[in-house]
């Protein structure tokens, strides 16, 4: 019982620390790509701590106040339905109580709560950001869903734990090698969901003043950053679970997620931003096509 | 004993009585309607759910006239419960919203008749009574559509033309059935249909399907729906889009499930385990939902957005049902329940908002959250349901549909459905933002009052229902299983706990989901409240506006803006710029042309020609009599 | 974890604030051109934890990069008031100190400190990125020592600041809701 509680309490903290460090590493590596030193890797932890210690924050109303809280609630809840490890009881959360479709929908719940907060904030830029985000989602979800449909059809289950189990036994059993086309299709969505550069449309500081985050400062922004860190780690873990066979220990998990994170980083370092309609159009063309080929192959088999 | 037979009559009589009695005592209309709704609720709940009961009315007619037959089984009871609930909630709504209108009396007359005829449809046990009540529903709802008087000619005409055409297709099919079965009786039809030649079965099925697809507003027969939903009397629209459209669902299941049987159709020709006809209809369903979703997003009228969303959501039901597996039908039924709840909730709330503000466009509303917190919450619940988000019932029903499509391996249908389902987030957000968030489009919105108290009686139970179905997604499963079993399937779900829903490939536990969400929310809220300095209250206009100081006149509400970028996405933009109405308009033009030619030849105003017609008619009659 | 009494938390917080300064660059004058090189590869201010902020709500440091026309002053005040405590102001160039080459101009302000509290002045015409970084380092020192309390100073002397602002802005003064809503700044 004690172990179980420890497991559950540890969940968001692991995700938070690792997610934040990844974001810091990203800034550092992008700095190196720009031929400068870049900030230290724990820069984002300092940032978020500073934001939590801001003495002021303004609120536009109840929903504005609740927006970031709902966001973090949705994301942490979603995290609990994704198993971090595939060995025994450690860090399983409630992943036996929900399946992949639940996780997929829970991932959006937090953003919807946030969108309500943004709406009450009353900044048109924020709402534009939300609209861009939701429009982008139309594009992103299609290759993602095609990929997970292929996955669910291939393994004949929607449970993340079972999908992970069925990939056990060596690197060749991993989803990314068994279903390479589905993996590639999902990777595009993954980059988009991680906010990597061609798809970083909602929070564009140049056009819509950082979009949904425009009116949020101080502790609200801190909570948003926290949830962004957790969310990043959640998505990385989900992809590792689905396509890279999960992980037996935390170290392996960090190794695998880091590899996946590097792809995000390298894509985002070299591309500039799409317009929202370009992003949707792109997503509906190549990744969807790749995904559909994967689906047809799966159906023929 | 009062059984299904008399239950049908209660609302109809109540309606007629309300109309005439109301001329003397005005409140009698409300009172009678409410009384009738409560009585009907009581009787429907007293009827055992899955018992098969029959009643015959023979009226001492000649033998070839079979008389009318009524009865109930699990499927009928399932829909009857939906109907009586909606009836009750709409009665509450109308109580508050219709009292000052000049069509007060006629509203209650036709509304009650519609409710009665809906019950008649689900309790009918022969095609003739089914058709009588079907027509009654169409005609009485027609008056409720044109009553508001915004654009009665165009809207009403479209509505009636499509629905009557659908009904006559059905009538033709019924007569074809009668020709071979020699009876209108449901139990006799089934066996007769099984013996019929395949081509005839297909033709009958298509004719029936047209009738039901019109009611369910499936593309390309959906043209009437958006306008009719938008322009019908506000308090009735919930019933119209939530419950009336479900009669298509019921009819569809009745005919394809109970009478002809999905297995029978599949035997004729099938694609991937679904009958070819069903597969085609399934595609119609998803295509409807995709395009209706796109179109919903770009609407400026609140009710029109909901109308298109309604068309889209019923599209899911069509798809799920027509793949014809136990799980598919279960998904359709589940979503039918959820959609009824969501649309009642949303339309009732929107009716209240329009009643209080007098505005019905997103570009004219905004910032009502502080003035109407309960309505905000109601719409929030509604959109979480519409979007299919986890803590509420909308997710459960969508989950079943996804699982049914996955299990029957209709992956392409599923992908198309995902397109629609993901795009739906946009209109959900537009709905809640445009009405309740952002800035007020006009200053008087800041003085608007919360919707009338009587609407709360509808809103609160509906919100609770959505939440309960989310927390206990398995609660409804036994009833769905029984309804599905009455169509000759095995039970769709195997698990029976109220907390969980599990089928085919996976499952989820709604109770755990809500607990995880709730606990984390409370923890974060407490931590946020206790350990941080209280945030200062900002003025509504104190926003980031590029260092400018916006005034009350600055247009800050982005209500209409949501969805404009949809026009710029290549394929979506192309689909939005075309409208199927154009096609029907062209058809109408052609028909007009032909008709005028015919008129010139046949009715040219020449007296001698008319005389000739009468003589010819007489001759024909004499010929027939002489035989 | 209450913030009112300085203690170990405040010490740690000051350390974090020092190492994480989000900059809102108000590009009024010629100094704006010095900021991009400060942030990019050559001088790389991100080493010190500096980072651009998109809106005043998120920013810690407001950089006034040069002379301020009275018209811009209104926007600067607005931006400053929208930032959340603790917030800092860095003024670049002589123009913000004494008017610089615009010392007798009719529509630029001469002393920025009269209108909003300034934490660090960086003198020069224009100061090079090295000087800006020097300024940031001295700001960091002030933050660490807990001396960079511009927001507090502004709040306490709000009447005086508003008087000064009103003298310059006249009829074009900021609407009440920006600073006098429910207890003011």
UniProtKB/TrEMBL annotation, chain B:
Q: Which GO terms describe its cellular component?
A: plasma membrane
GO molecular function terms noted in the UniProt entry: NADH dehydrogenase (ubiquinone) activity; oxidoreductase activity
Query: Which InterPro entries does the UniProt entry name for this protein?
Result: ComplexI-like_HydComp, NADH_UbQ_OxRdtase, ND/Mrp_TM
Q: In which broad location class does this protein mainly occur, judging by the first location in its UniProt entry? A: membrane
Q: Where in the cell is it found?
A: Cell membrane; Membrane
Protein name in UniProt = NADH-quinone oxidoreductase subunit M
Q: How does it sit in the membrane?
A: Multi-pass membrane protein
Name the GO terms of the biological process aspect: ATP synthesis coupled electron transport
Question: In this protein, which residues make up the domain named NADH:quinone oxidoreductase/Mrp antiporter transmembrane?
Answer: 124-421
Keyword entries, A-Z: Cell membrane, Membrane, Oxidoreductase, Transmembrane, Transmembrane helix
Q: Name one Pfam family in it.
A: Proton_antipo_M
- This entry's Enzyme Commission designation comes to 1.6.5.3
Please tell me which top-level EC class this enzyme sits in.
Answer: oxidoreductase
Membrane-crossing segments per the record: 6-25, 32-54, 74-98, 105-124, 130-147, 159-181, 201-226, 247-265, 277-298, 305-330, 336-356, 368-390, 410-432, 453-480, 508-531, 609-626
Automatic annotation (TrEMBL), chain C:
Query: GO cellular component terms?
Result: respiratory chain complex I
Enzyme Commission number(s): 1.6.5.3
Provide this UniProt record's keywords sorted from A to Z.
Answer: 4Fe-4S, Iron, Iron-sulfur, Metal-binding, NAD, Oxidoreductase, Quinone
Q: Does DNA-binding appear among the keywords?
A: no
The protein, known as = NADH-quinone oxidoreductase subunit B
Regarding protein family, the annotation reads: Belongs to the complex I 20 kDa subunit family.
| Domain NADH:ubiquinone oxidoreductase-like 20kDa subunit residues, every copy | 29-138
What InterPro entries does the record tag this protein with? NADH_UbQ_OxRdtase-like_20kDa, NADH_UQ_OxRdtase_20Kd_su
Under Gene Ontology molecular function, one entry of this record is: 4 iron, 4 sulfur cluster binding
Q: Please provide the Gene Ontology terms (biological process) for this protein.
A: aerobic respiration; electron transport coupled proton transport
């Amino acid at each position: 019982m004690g172990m179980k509680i420890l497991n559950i309490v540890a969940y968001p903290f692991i995700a938070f620390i690792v997610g934040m460090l990844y974001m810091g590493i990203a800034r550092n590596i992008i700095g190196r790509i720009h031929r400068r030193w870049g900030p230290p890797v724990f820069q984002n932890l300092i940032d978020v701590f500073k934001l939590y210690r801001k003495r002021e924050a303004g609120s536009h109303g109840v929903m504005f106040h609740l927006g970031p809280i709902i966001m973090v609630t949705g994301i942490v809840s979603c995290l609990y339905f994704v198993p971090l490890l595939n060995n025994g009881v450690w860090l399983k959360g409630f992943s036996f109580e929900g399946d992949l479709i639940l996780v997929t929908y829970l991932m959006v719940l937090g953003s919807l709560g946030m969108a309500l907060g943004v709406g009450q904030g009353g900044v048109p830029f924020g709402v534009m950001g939300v609209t861009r985000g939701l429009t982008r989602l139309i594009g992103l979800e299609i290759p993602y869903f095609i990929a997970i449909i292929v996955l669910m059809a291939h393994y004949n289950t929607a449970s993340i734990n079972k999908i992970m189990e069925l990939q056990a036994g060596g690197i060749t059993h991993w989803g990314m090698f068994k279903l390479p086309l589905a993996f590639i299709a999902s990777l595009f969505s993954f980059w988009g969901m991680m906010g990597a550069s061609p798809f970083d449309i909602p929070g564009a500081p140049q056009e819509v003043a950082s979009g949904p985050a425009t009116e949020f400062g101080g502790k609200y922004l801190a909570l948003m950053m926290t949830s962004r860190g957790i969310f990043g780690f959640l998505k990385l873990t989900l992809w590792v679970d689905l396509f890279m066979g999960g992980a037996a220990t935390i170290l392996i998990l960090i190794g695998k997620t880091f590899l996946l994170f590097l792809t995000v980083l390298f894509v985002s370092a070299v591309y500039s931003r799409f317009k929202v309609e370009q992003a949707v159009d792109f997503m509906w063309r190549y990744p969807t096509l790749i995904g559909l080929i994967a689906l047809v192959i799966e159906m023929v088999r | 004993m009062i059984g299904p037979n008399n239950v049908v009559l209660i609302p109809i009589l109540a309606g007629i009585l309300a109309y005439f009695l109301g001329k003397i005592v005005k409140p009698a209309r409300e009172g009678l309607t409410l009384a009738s709704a409560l009585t009907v609720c009581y009787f429907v709940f007293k009827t055992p759910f899955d018992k098969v009961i029959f009643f015959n009315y023979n009226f001492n007619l000649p033998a070839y006239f079979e008389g009318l037959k009524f009865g109930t089984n699990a499927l009928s009871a399932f829909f009857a419960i939906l109907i009586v609930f909606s009836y009750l909630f709409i009665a509450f709504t109308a109580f508050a919203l219709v009292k000052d209108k000049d069509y007060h009396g006629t509203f209650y007359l036709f509304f009650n008749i519609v409710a009665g005829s809906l019950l008649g449809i689900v309790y009918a046990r022969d095609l003739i009574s089914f058709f009588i009540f079907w027509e009654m529903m169409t005609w009485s709802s027609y008056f409720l559509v044109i009553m508001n008087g915004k654009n009665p000619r165009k809207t009403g005409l479209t509505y009636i033309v499509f629905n009557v055409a659908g009904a006559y297709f059905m009538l033709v099919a019924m007569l074809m059935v009668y020709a071979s079965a020699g009876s209108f009786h449901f139990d006799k039809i089934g066996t007769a249909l099984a013996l019929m030649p395949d081509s005839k079965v297909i033709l009958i099925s298509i004719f029936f399907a047209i009738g039901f697809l019109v009611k369910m507003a499936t593309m390309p027969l959906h043209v009437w729906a958006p306008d009719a939903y938008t322009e019908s009397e506000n308090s009735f629209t919930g019933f119209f889009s939530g419950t009336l459209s479900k009669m298509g669902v019921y009819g569809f299941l009745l005919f394809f499930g109970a009478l002809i049987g999905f297995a029978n159709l599949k035997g004729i020709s099938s694609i991937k385990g679904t009958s070819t006809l069903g597969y085609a209809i399934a595609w119609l369903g998803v295509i409807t939902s995709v395009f209706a979703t796109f179109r919903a997003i770009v609407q400026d009228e609140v009710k029109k957005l909901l109308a298109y969303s309604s068309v889209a959501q019923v599209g899911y039901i069509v798809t799920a049902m027509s793949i014809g597996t136990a799980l598919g039908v279960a998904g359709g039924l589940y979503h039918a329940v959820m959609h009824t709840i969501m649309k009642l909730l949303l339309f009732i709330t929107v009716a209240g908002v329009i009643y209080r503000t007098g505005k019905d466009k997103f570009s004219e509303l905004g910032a009502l959250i502080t003035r109407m917190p309960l309505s905000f919450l109601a719409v929030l619940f509604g959109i979480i349901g519409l979007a299919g988000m986890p803590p509420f019932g909308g997710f459960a029903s969508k989950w079943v549909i996804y699982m049914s499509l996955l299990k029957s391996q209709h992956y392409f249908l599923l992908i198309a459905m995902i397109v629609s389902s993901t795009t739906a987030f946009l209109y959900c957000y537009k709905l809640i933002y445009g009405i309740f968030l952002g800035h007020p489009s006009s200053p008087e919105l800041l003085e608007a009052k919360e919707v009338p108290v009587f609407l709360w009686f509808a809103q609160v139970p509906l919100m609770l229902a959505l939440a309960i179905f989310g927390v206990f997604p398995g609660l409804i499963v036994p009833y769905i299983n029984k309804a599905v079993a009455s169509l000759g399937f095995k039970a769709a779900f195997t698990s029976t706990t109220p907390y969980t829903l599990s089928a085919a490939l996976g499952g989820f536990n709604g109770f755990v989901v809500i607990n995880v969400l709730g606990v984390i929310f409370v923890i974060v809220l407490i931590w946020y409240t206790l350990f941080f300095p209280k945030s200062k209250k900002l003025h509504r206009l104190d926003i980031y506006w590029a260092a400018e100081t916006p005034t009350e006149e600055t247009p800050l509400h982005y209500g209409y803006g949501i969805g404009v970028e949809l026009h710029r996405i290549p394929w979506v933009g192309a689909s939005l710029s075309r409208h199927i109405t154009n096609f029907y308009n062209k058809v109408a033009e052609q028909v007009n042309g032909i008709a005028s030619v015919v008129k010139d030849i046949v009715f040219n105003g020449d007296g001698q020609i008319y005389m000739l017609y009468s003589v010819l008619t007489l001759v024909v009659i004499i010929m027939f009599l002489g035989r | 974890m209450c913030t009112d009494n300085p203690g170990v938390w405040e010490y740690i917080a000051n350390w974090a604030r020092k190492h994480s300064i989000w900059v809102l660059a108000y590009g009024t004058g010629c100094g704006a051109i010095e900021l991009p090189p400060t942030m990019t590869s050559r001088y790389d201010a991100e080493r010190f934890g500096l980072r651009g902020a998109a809106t005043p709500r998120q920013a810690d440091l407001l950089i006034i990069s040069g002379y301020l026309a009275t018209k811009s002053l209104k926007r600067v005040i607005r931006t400053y008031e929208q930032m959340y405590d603790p917030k800092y102001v860095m003024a670049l160039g002589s123009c913000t100190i004494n008017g610089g080459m615009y010392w007798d101009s009719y529509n630029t302000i001469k002393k920025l400190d009269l209108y909003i509290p300034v934490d660090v002045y960086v003198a020069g015409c224009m100061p090079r990125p090295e000087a800006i970084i020097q300024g940031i380092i001295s700001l960091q020192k002030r933050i660490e020592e807990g001396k960079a309390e511009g927001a507090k100073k502004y709040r306490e002397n709000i009447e005086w600041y508003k008087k000064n602002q009103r003298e310059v802005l006249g009829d074009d003064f900021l609407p009440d809701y920006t600073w006098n809503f429910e207890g003011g700044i």
